[in-house]
Queue: 3 jobs
Job 1
Amino acid sequence: MKEFRLTDWLPTTKKEVELRGWDQLDIILFSADAYIDHPSFGAAVIGRILEAEGLKVAIVPQPDWHGDYRDFKKLGRPRLWFGVAPGCMDSMVNKYTANRRLRSEDAYSPDGRHDLRPEYPTVVYTQILKQIYPDVPVVLGGIEASLRRLTHYDYWKECFKPCILCESGADMIVYGMGEKPIIELTNKLTQLIEQSDEDLAYDENGQSYIGIKAFRKALCRSSEIKQTVVLYKKEDIPGGITDQDIVLHSHESCLENKRFQSENFKHIEEESNKYHAQRIIQQTGNRYVVVNPPYPPLTQKELDHSFDLPYTRLPHPKYKGKRIPAYEMIKFSVNLHRGCFGGCAFCTISAHQGKFIMNRSKESILKEVKAICEMPDFKGYLSDLGGPSANMYGMRGKKLEICEKCKKPSCIHPQICPNLNTDHRPLLDIYHAVDALPGIKKSFIGSGVRYDLLLHDAKDNQINHAAQQYTRELITKHVSGRLKVAPEHTSDYVLNLMRKPSFRLFGEFKTIFDRINREENLHQQIIPYFISSHPGCKAEDMAELAVLTKDMDFQLEQVQDFTPTPMTVSTETWATGFHPYTLEPVYSAKTPKEKLAQRMFFFWYKPEEQGKIRAELQKMNRPDLIQRLFDKKTTTNSFPRRKTYEETPVQKNKKENAHKRKFSRKQK
C-alpha cells in the first residue's frame, strides 16, 4: 500500500496551498459533497483534469453557508474562475424522498450528516460568492446545474423555474461530463492573459485575475465553447439567432401554457442525444439562454486519461475515522464505461452523459483493479464491475454514419436498433482478465443489467452465443446471492411510457435464472425493482402488478414512488399532463392520497395493508383480483396476465353455452 502525504490530495485549506508553495490559485472549486479523491466523484475528476493541465486548483468541500462565510473567503480570489459543483446527486433528491420527507442520511457527507449541505447549493454558493467577489466569474457544473439549464419543473417548489443561471447569478454552466469544456474555457482565458493585460483586474496584493469584463470578452472573441450555457442580451448572442438554431418557446410562454413546455422538451432531449446537435436558444425575460451543442463522445484515450489521473482513491484525511456512505458503496468498484442508450423515460443518465457508450481500455481497467488490490482493507472481492448499465460495454452502432444522423433517445426501445452491435464478448474479456488477477477472489456485478439485451435474437449466432455465455457467467460467477434487475412495472402501457421492455421479457429472464440456479445447485434470488405513480399508471395497474408478482412468488422489497426530477420525459409528462413526443394527455397520480392508493399494492402481503387493498379493489369492481391476492388456494400460471377487459356479448354467449353443455353431460 502506497503511503500518501497530505499534498497527494488537492488542497482544501490555506495551509495545504502553502505546503505546495503556491501564492495564488488559478481555480477554486466549491462542492456540496465531502471531498473523496476518486474517479466516481465529479469535483475530484474536474480538479485532477485541471491539475493535469498545469493549473493550481483547490477544492472547498461542504463550505459553511452560515455566519461570516469564512469558508468562501479563506482561499481568496482565483486567477481564472470559481467553480460550483454541488455534488454527484441532485441536492433535493439526495436530501428528500418522493414524499418530501428527509432521508435517513446524506450519503455524500461524513457520518451521513444532513446539516452540511443546503437545499439548492448551486444557488446558495453562487450567491454568496457573488456577494463577496462580484467581479469574479462563477462557472457551474454537476448534475444540479446541468439538468436545470433551461426551463424545468421543480417538484419541491411545485413550479416551473427558468435556467438556473437566472436565479443563481452565475456566468456559465458546463453541462454533462465536463472534462473537455473546462479545458477549452481555461485555455481561452489563459490566452487572453498572455495576449493582453488591459482587461485584467488586480486584487489588493497587486495580483491579476480575470474579471467579468475579461471573461465576457474571451467568450465573444472566438467561437463559442461547446457544452456550455450562457445568458446573453439578444444583440450579444454570438453570430445572432440563425435558421440553424432551435428556438424554444420562451420561459414566460411555458408558464402560461404547459403544452409549450412539453413541446420544448422533445427538442431538448433530442439535441442531448444527437451526435451532431444544434444550438438551443430560449428567451427568459429580456435575456436569452444559449445552450451550445455538446462535444462528441470522448475517445477511449481521452476517457482513459480521465480515469488514470493520480487519484488517491481515498477520502481527504480530514475525514479520518468518519464513515461516508457513498464512498463505502463504491470504494471497491470499477466503472468500465460512460453513457447509456437505454433512454429510460425517468432517468437522467443520457441527459448528463449522453447515449453513446464510451469505453475504457482493458489496460486502464486492470490498472485501477490492481490499485484496489493494494488497498489495506481489500479482501479480494470487487463490489462492482459496471457502469450506468452493466452490460453495455463495447456496444455501439455498426455504421457510425447511421448513428450520426439519428436523434432517437433510445437504441433499444421500442425495439433494439438493427444497427446496434449487442456483442457481449468484449465485456466477457474484461471479466476474465480481471478475475485472472492474483488479488481477485471474486468480482460482483452491482450495476443494473439490461436483460432485454441478453434475450435479443441477433442475426449473428456468435453474438447470440456470447449473450447466453454472459448470462450463465453473470449468474454463476458474479452474483452475491441476489441479482438486482429493474422491470419497473408489469403494465405494457406504462412500460411503453417508461421506455422499458415488456414484462414478458422479465418472465423469460427469471425462467433462465431459475434454471441455471437449479443446474448449478445454487440458491440465489432475483430482486426486481418497481415504480409506482409513474405517469400513465393507475391504481388498477398496480393491483395487477401485485397479482402478477405474487404469482411469481415475490414479496417486493425494492420499490419506490416516482420522483419527478428535472429534465426527464417522465417529469415533463407528470408536470404538464402531456407526453412531449405525442402531446397526448397522460394521467398522473399527484395527490398523496392517489400515490398511497398505488403504493400500498406493493405490500399486499402485510396485514395492515390488506383491508385497504380489499376496499380499493371492491371500488374497482375487481373481485377477481381480491381472490387472486388473498385466497391461498388460488394459483395461476397465466403469466404475464394482460389487463382484464369486460367480456363482449359473443364471449358471454360462448361461456354460457359451454357451461350448458357441461351440465347436460353430467345429467346424462
Job 2
Amino acid sequence: MRKQPITKILVPKTGLNGLKEHWQADMLAGFAVFLTALPLCLAISIASGFPPAAGIISAIIGGILVSRISGSNMTINGPAAGLIVVVFAAVQTLGAGDNIAGYRYTLAAIVVASVLQIFMGLSKIGRFSAFFPSSVVHGMLAAIGIIIMAKQSHVMLGVTSETEHIFATIAQIPLSLMQPTPEIAIIGLSGLIVLMFWPLIKTPKLKIIPAPLIVLCLGMLLGQIFGLQHDHYHLLTFSPMEDHEHLIPARFLVALPSDFMSSFYYPDFAKIFKLEFWGAVISICLVGSLESMLSTNAVDKLDPYKRKSDLDKDLTAIGIGNVIAGFIGGLPMIAEIVRSTTNIKNGAKTNWANFFHGLILLFFVVLFPHFIHNIPLASLAVLLIFTGYHLASPKLFKHILNRGSEQFIIFIITIISVLATNLIVGVVLGILAKLIVHIIRGVWLNNLFTIHFNIRCPNEGTIVVTLIGSAMFSNFLPLKQALEKLESGKIIVFNFSDGYLIDQTVMEFLEDFKHTYIQQGGSCHQVGNPIKLFSDNALAARLMTLDDRKI
C-alpha cells in the first residue's frame, strides 16, 4: 500500500501580515463571537451588581486593546461567569448596602488586582497555576456554577430573593417556583427551553445562529407582547452623570444609558486601607488569573494549528486591560472559554478575530442602544443559569468520581467550603485536604514541597528522567520547568522505578507533555510499573514502591 503524503499545516502569520491574509475569516469569526458575547456581557454585569454596560466596556477593551498585546492566538477576552461571585461579594461587602458606592469601591479593587496581575505576568508566575490541583479547581468552578444557578433562578421567575446566604437562597427556590411573576416566568422558561433544544437542531443554516441570540429575540418579543417596556424608559430619563439612578436596573428590563460615554464611572480608593478591600483584591486577582490561565490552556488544545500561548505575556496583557477597565467602570476580564470556542468553530485564524469582536461591540452599543433597552432580565438570567449548569453539571460530578474516590472527596470538600465560606477559604481548604490525603498515603513531609529527580543523557539521542520519591501538584514545578527546556526530537525515558507516589495532576501534565513532544518529532517511554492505582482512570494517582525512605 502506498503511503499517503504528510500534509504540512501552514500556521497563519501574525501581526499586520496576518490581518492582510485572513481579515475576512477573522472578521466573520469576530461577528459570530459578538453575537454570543453581547448577551453574556450584559448578563454577567447585572449578576455581578454592576451596570449592564460594564461587561461591554471590558469586552471592547479586551478585543481592541488586549488582543494586540496578548500572548495567545485564539482566546477571546471579556467578562466571565466565574468572576460573578467574587465581584458581587465585593460590591455587597464594600458598599455595606449602598450598591453605587460598592460598585465604585470594587472598581478600585479591580485596578489594584490588575496591577498585581501585571506584576505576576512580568514575574513569570504563570507557571504556578500548576500548584492548584484539578479537583480543587473543578470544585471551585462547580461551586460558582451552583451559586449562579441559585441566584439567577429567582430572577428568571421574576421574584426577588429575600436572603443573602447561598444555602437560604437555594432553599427559597421552591417558593419562587410556586409564586412567580407569570409573564416573567414565561419569558425565562421559554428561553430555557430554547437553550435545551437548540443544540438538537440538525439544519446547518439554523445552527449558525447562536442560541443566546435566539433567547434574546424571543425574550424581547414576549416583552413587547406583555408590555414590559412602558415603565422602563421612565427610569432612563435621569441624566446618568448627575443622578446614579440608572445604575439600578428597571424591574424586568435592562437599563442602559442612551449615550454610551455616560456609562463610564471612576473608582473610589477610599477603602484601600481596609481589610475587606484587600480581601476583594486577592479574590479578584486569584480567581481571574487562575481561570484565565486554565481557559487559555484549554483553548490551545482546541487550536487547529496547535499554537502555544505565552501565559505570562497573556496575564500581563489582561492585567493592563483590567487596569483600564477598572478606571472607567468595567468588569475584570479573563480569557473566556465559551466565546473562544465559538471563535475557533467559526474559522478564526489569528487574534485579529478578538479585535473585530471588540470593534463590532463598540459600534453596536453606540449605534443601537435602544435594542439593548428592550432585553428582559429574565432572558439574561436564563443564559447565566445555563452557564452555571455547565460549570456544575452532573456529567462533571461523574467525571471526577471516575478519577478516584479521593479526587471526588476533595472536589466535594472544595464545593461545600466555597458555599459555606468564600472562594479563597474554599480553595485553601481544598488544597489542605489534598495534602492531608498525600500524608495519609505515606508521603514524607520533606517531599510535600520538594521534588527529587535527575536528568541524564546516556547517549546523544536519549534523555533519561529519573524520579526519586513522590511527584505531586505541590512540588512538581521544578520537574515541569526542566522538561520544558529539553531539546526536541530525542527519545525521553521516564524512569519511575525509584518513585513512590505520583498524583493525578502530575500524570495529566506528563500525558500532555508526551503528546506535544511526540508531535514535535520525539518519542517518550516509561520505565516502572505501579503497584497500586487509586482508580480505573488511566491517569489516576499511583504508588510505585512500598515506601520513600530513599529520599
Job 3
Amino acid sequence: MKNSPWWRDAVVYEIYVRSFADASGDGVGDLEGIRARLPYLAELGVDAVWLTPFQPSPMADGGYDVADYRGVDPLFGTLDDFDALVAEAHAHGLRLIVDVVPNHSSSEHPWFKAALASPPGSPERDRYMFRDGDRPPNNWTSTFSGPAWSRVPDGQWYLHLFAPEQPDFNWRNPAVHEEFLDVLRFWLDRGVDGFRIDVAMGLYKDADLSDVPPSEEGFQSRSPIWSQPEVHEVYRAWRKVLDSYPGDRAAVGEVWTDSPEDLALYVRPDELHQSFNFAWLEAPWSATSFRKIIDDTLAAVTAPTWVLSNHDVVRHVTRYGEGSLNPGAGNARANAALLAMLALPGSAYLYQGEELGLPEVRELPPEARQDPIFKRSKGELPGRDGCRVPLPWSGTEAPFGFSPDGGRPWLPQPPEWAALTAERQAGDPESTLAFYRRALALRRSLRDSLPDAIAWLDAPADTLAFSRGELVCAINCGDRPVPLPPHDGVLISSGPVDETTLAPDTAVWLRSA
C-alpha cells in the first residue's frame, strides 16, 4: 500500500455550481442540488469535488467576481447549506475543494466601494491597483477583450485584467496578504479539504508596470503581468496555513504558463501541492504531442495533474472531433484520452458532464449568452457559455431534471441532450457514463500497486505505448489499426478491441506479459 497524501493520485470532479443541479427551481444550480447528487458522484468513482465560486457576487463573471469571501450567495443557499454539504460529502467518502479568487474582487466588494469613496493616495485605494495619468498607465489589455484599465471620476485609473467589475488587488499591500490568510482559515475551519486558486500566477505585477512587448503572447514567465517572482512568497505563507490543519489539506493552482519549468516553481515542497497542467488540455489529437507533454511534465514536477476540460475551454469531445470526417471521432478520442490520462502517475481532474460525453453547445442565441467575453468583444468571441450549459439528468425534454419540472435553466439546453441524460446512460452498459464508471473503478483498484513512473514501449507511428508496473497503456491516434504490445490480457478499452489489434482513435489497458 502507498502511504501518500490523498491528493497525489486523486480523481477530482469539477462542479460549475450554476450548472450542476438546481434544487430551488430558479433555473440556477445550488448547494442543495449538489448535495442531492452526491450519491451519483460517489457511484461515479471520484475522490474529491471542486466547487467553483458560490460566495456572494453580482455575477458579472459567473461568481469569479467575489463581493464577500466569507459567505454564500443567496442564489446558491446559505452557510448552513454549505456546512451540510461538507458533512455529507465526507460521509460519502468525498473530499471537498473550494475556489478562492485572490487576483481580484468584485467592484461591489466593500473594499473597492471604500476605495472609490476615498481620495487618491488613501490607504483604501492602495488595496487595489490605482494610478494617475491622462492616459492608461500602460498597454495592457484585458483577457476578456478591451483595455485593462478603467478610469474613475476623479481621473485615476484602476487595473482589471478581466472585466471592469473585477478590480485587481494590490498584493504589495500587506493588508491584502492578511485578508486572504484569514479567508483560508475561515473555510478550513468549516472543514474544506483544500483550495483551487484562480489566476494563481497573476497576483503580483511588474513594479514598474512595464508595457507588454508587441511580440509577446501567452503567459510567458518574462511577462510584466504574469508569474512575477514575489508570488511564490504568497504560496509559502499559504502552505504554512494549510499544513497547520490536520488531514492533508491541499491547494492546486490555476497556473497558465508556457513552460513546465515555470510550472514546477509553483509546486516546490514549501509552496502549492499541485498546479494544473494545461499543456495536456491544449494538446491536439496527436501521439507526438501527447508524448512530449508527458515527458516534459514528468521531468519537471513530482505531483503531476492531468485535465482534458474545464469551465473555461471548449469541451474536449468537440475539440477532438473538429476536422475529422468521422462524426463519432470526438467521442471515441475523448474516451481514449481519458484512459491515457488515468493511466499516468498523478491526479486527474474531470469536468462535470464529460462523463456523459457532452459536447460544446455552439448554437446558443446571442440573447442567452452571459459570458463577459462575448459582451466585451461585441459578439466577436463566443465566450465560455457553450461549456457551461446545465447538465441533463433525466427525462426527454428540458430542463432534463436539472431543475424541477417547469424550471427554466439559466442557459438553454439543446433538445438532442435527451439521448445523453444520466438516467438514460445509467441503464446502458455501452454508454459513456458506464465507461467512465468502469475506468474509474479499475484505476482505483490498481493505483496503490502502481509506481510513480512510466517506461515507454516501442509503438508504431501515430501511437503511444507505456508501462507502469504491471499496467500497459496503448493509444492509437492514427487512422489505421496497429498491433497491440505484448500482454497477458485486456483490462479495459475505450472501443472495440481484440487480443492482437488496436483500432484507430482507441486506447486500451493491458496486463503486462
